[in-house]
């Protein structure tokens, strides 16, 4: 059994293994979540937008943050040679994630009566795995 990767290996080395990519994606996901969740709160509570509109805009902001960090730090070489094509595929997976996000938030907020911020946390956990697996296996070379 091989030893656990050091923090230096995790942070600096090439993406490499599925475990290293998943750990890095969790860090990127955390940063993107802060952007997404913070934007959701600001747009809903401060700007006064309806929560589903805020959730869509915030999700797009989080998606952009995630793309920039993921392509530079999480994953290795792309299967798609065209940068715009790569972003389009990344965004398309994100749009499916957005659909899942909206559906889950609606179901838990309007369906069961949870606060929209709690619904967002549940949604984020589910959509995280969809986004990681789809992007890793469909866009980037493993």
Give an overview of the whole structure:
This protein is mainly alpha-helical and 142 residues long. It has one domain (17-138). It is 78% helix and 0% strand. The chain is built from five helices and no strands. The chain has helices at residues 7-12, 18-46, 51-74, 83-111, 116-138. It is elongated and about 40 Å long. The mean pLDDT is 88.
Q: Topology of this structure?
A:
Elements: H1 7-12, H2 18-46, H3 51-74, H4 83-111, H5 116-138
Helix pairs in contact: 2-3, 2-5, 3-4, 4-5
Overall average pLDDT: 88
Distance between the termini: 21 Å
Helix content: over 70%
Task: Classify the secondary structure makeup into a structural class.
Answer: mainly alpha
Count of individual domains: 1
Radius of gyration equals 16 Å
Q: What is the overall shape?
A: elongated
Number of strands: 0
Low-confidence stretches: none
Query: How many helices does DSSP assign?
Result: 5
Strand percentage? under 5%
Characterize the main sheet.
Answer: none
Question: What can be said about this structure in brief?
Answer:
With 142 residues, the chain is an all-alpha fold.
Task: Record keyword descriptors for this entry.
142 residues, 5 helices, 78% helix, mainly alpha
